[in-house]
Amino acid sequence: MIPQSFDYDAPSTLDDAIALLQRYGDDAKILSGGQSLIPMMKLRLATPERIIDINGLPGLSYIKEEGGYLKIGGLTRESDLEHSKLIQRKYPIFKEVTKLIANPQVRNRSTIGGNLAHGDAANDHPAVMIAMNAQLLATGPKETRIIPIDDFFQGFFTTALSSDEILTEIQIPVPPAGWGGAYHKLERKVGDYATAGVAVQIVLDANDVCQDIGIGLTNVNVVPLRARRSEDVLRGQKVTAAGIIEAAQFAAEDCNPAEDLRGSEAYKRAMVNVLTKRMLQRAIERAKAN
Amino acid sequence: MSNKPITINVNGTSHSAEVEPRLLLVHFLREVLNLTATHIGCDTSNCGACTVLLNGKSIKSCTLFAVQANRQEVTTLEGLAQNGELHPLQEGFREEHGLQCGFCTPGMIMRSVELLTDNPNPTEEEIRWGISGNLCRCTGYNNIVKAIQYAAVKLREAEATTEDVPMEA
User: Fold this and answer.
1) Chain B contact set for A55 (CB, 8 A)
2) Claim to verify: residue A28 and residue A67 sit in the same structural domain
3) pLDDT tens across A227-275, in order?
4) B88-162: which CATH architecture?
5) Predicted model pTM
6) What is the torsional sign of CA B28, B30, B35, B37?
7) Which of A70, A183, B91, B104 could, after both became Cys, cross-link B136 (CB 3.0–4.6 A)?
8) Using CA atoms, how far apart are residues B37 and B119, in angstroms rounded to an integer?
9) Domain-ending residue, one of A158, A173, A188
10) Residue among B20, B58, B64 whose CB faces A5 most closely
C-alpha cells in the first residue's frame, strides 16, 4: 500500500522543527518512530500533507535519574529502554512494558515519546505512566510546559499537545523505598495490541500499609484509564486479599472495553479483573522486597 | 509535493536517487536498486519478511520511507556473503533445512544477524523471542531455530579463531 503524497522535512534542530510545526499547523504530522503513523498512512487512515521527521534532532534520546526524577528523552527508542541497565536494575515495570510492545524490529524504531503522543489507548506506555504518576514536557515556540499525565490524554487519538509542540521529555518521580511496579497485557499473539493491560505501582510502608498507589488500564477505554476507585479502596489501608479482590472488581466495572476480534465486553472486563489482581500481587511482592 | 535527493549506502555501495518522500525503503531496494531478496509479505509491519539492517539495527523496511535512510547504511541479504563465501546464517538455513518456500527467509536471516551480534550465545527461548517479529507459514519455526543455533556456533568459532591468532612481536 502506498501513502498519499506528502512534503517532507527533516529539521536538524528543535527550534527548526517547532518553526515548521508553527508554519504548517494541522497540515503537518511529526514523524518519530513511525511504527504507528506509517502503517496508518499506508492504509490512508492518516493523510498528512507534510511530514516533519524529528529523528535527526540531537539530545532527545536519554535515560537518566536527575533531581528526584527518572527522565527519559522523547526520542528514546523502545529497544534502548529494553536494554538499559538502569531500567533493568531499578525499574522492572519499564522492562516489562517495553518487552511487550510489538517486536524487536519495531522496537528498534519506535520511541517512547511517540508511543505517548500518538494518543492511542491501545498503546502500552500510557497505562504505566498513569500508574507512575508521570509528567510530560511539551516544548513549543515560547516555552516548555509540564503536562501531568492525568491531563494528557483527552480523547480518541487526541492529547493535550498543541499542533506546534513536541513531547521532549518524560519525567517519572523516583518512587520511595518500599515501592513495586508491574505491567502485563493479555494478547492473542506475541506483539498484538492488548486484549486488556494493567499497570500497577504501589508503595508500602514497614507495616504493609499502602502509602501510594497508581493503576492504569490499556485498551479498555477510549482513552488510557486510571482505575480511580480501585486506587481509592487501597490507599491508606493495609493490603489484604480482600482489598485486592475489591480493587480488581472495581477496575473491571469502571473500564469501558469495546467488543472486537480480541473479545467481548464481558470477556475483557473479566480479564481486567484477573490482570489487576495479578499485577497488584506482583507489585506488592516487589514492594515488600524493596 | 517535491522529490527529494537521497544517497543511501546499500551493502557497501553508495546509491543516489531522487525519490518521492512517500517511497518506502522496501520499494527503493526492490524497484530502484533491483535488490529483490527483501520481500513484502504483509505490508502492515507484522510479518517481518521485509527486514533489513539500518546502521546495523534490524528494521522493517516496509515501515520506513527511503528518505529517512538518507546518508545511512542499509544491509540486505544480498550483502551478507563475503568473497563468494556464504554467511554462517545462510549456511545454517541450508544445513538445517530452515526454509521451505523461502519467502520469510531473508527477513529471518537479517533479523538473526542483529540477534546474534547482540547475543552470541542465545538460549532457544531467546532465539524464539528474538524472531518474534518474523512470521513463517511453512516450517513451524523449529528448523529456523536450529539454523540460527548452527550459525551461532559457527560465528563463535570464527570469533575464537580470530582471537587465538598470536600478535607479531
Assistant:
1) 68
2) no
3) 999 999 999 999 999 999 999 999 999 999 999 999 999 999 999 999 9
4) Orthogonal Bundle (1.10)
5) 0.94
6) positive
7) B104
8) 25
9) A173
10) B20
